[in-house]
């Protein structure tokens, strides 16, 4: 009887997470990517001879205008919206981040979708790794995860603007469960 109760509790917790993922995705799948837009543009600049320094204010203004014009010619309302808000390309992140995002699609809507998926998966995995490090039972960990996905506005903000907090959470979670040398590598990536 006790085993059956544990199985039922685990199934209920898993269903709660699935429900929370679906609701969270539906509420945010078409969210604009205010921060992601900067990553997207800078990921495309590697190897361009006409871009000497992405951190130079004059370069940021020129590149911002160039990509604003490209956005206006695109069929993407999201790209136009983000380009308008980031007409001046305020590049402040690490070149490592921009390089790591070179894999996203050149199609902005698809790239933003890919990044939203990455942020969602990173948040879930990062949280679950931390829950394991804390030795939470699976049902408790999953119920808390469902609640976080539904009501934690910090994660929602991360997903909505396309920031890197969930990626950092994943690195933190991985470092907590890794041997010291590997933990140091994850901390370095963080």
Give a topology summary:
Blueprint: H1 2-28, H2 34-43, H3 57-73, H4 77-85, H5 95-100, H6 108-133, H7 138-151, H8 153-161, H9 165-176, H10 180-189
Summarize the structure.
The chain is mostly helical. 74% of the residues lie in helices and 0% in strands.
Notes on the structure:
This protein is 74% helix and 0% strand. It has 190 residues and is an all-alpha fold. Helix 3 (57-73) packs antiparallel against helix 4 (77-85). It has helices spanning 2-28, 34-43, 57-73, 77-85, 95-100, 108-133, 138-151, 153-161, 165-176, 180-189. The relative contact order is 0.15.
**SSE succession:** HHHHHHHHHH
Decide which structural class fits the backbone. Answer: mainly alpha
**Number of helical segments?**
10
Catalogue the unreliable spans: none
Which key terms come to mind for this protein?
190 residues, mainly alpha, 10 helices, single chain
């Amino acid at each position: 009887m006790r085993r059956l109760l544990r199985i039922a509790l685990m199934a209920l917790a898993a269903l709660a997470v699935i429900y929370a993922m679906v609701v969270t995705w539906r509420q945010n799948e078409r969210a604009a990517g205010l921060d992601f837009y900067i990553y997207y543009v800078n990921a495309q600049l590697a190897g361009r001879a006409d871009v000497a320094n992405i951190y130079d204010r004059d370069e940021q203004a020129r590149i911002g205008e160039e990509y604003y014009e490209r956005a206006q010619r695109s069929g993407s309302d999201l790209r136009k919206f983000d380009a308008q808000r980031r007409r001046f390309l305020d590049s402040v992140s690490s070149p490592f981040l921009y390089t790591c995002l070179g894999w996203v699609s050149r199609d902005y809507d698809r790239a933003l979708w890919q990044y939203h998926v990455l942020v969602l998966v990173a948040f879930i995995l990062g949280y679950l790794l931390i829950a394991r490090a804390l030795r939470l039972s699976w049902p408790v960990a999953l119920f808390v995860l469902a609640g976080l996905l539904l009501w934690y506005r910090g994660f929602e903000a991360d997903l909505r603007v396309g920031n890197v907090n969930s990626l950092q959470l994943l690195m933190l979670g991985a470092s907590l469960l890794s041997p010291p040398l590997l933990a140091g590598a994850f901390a370095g990536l963080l």
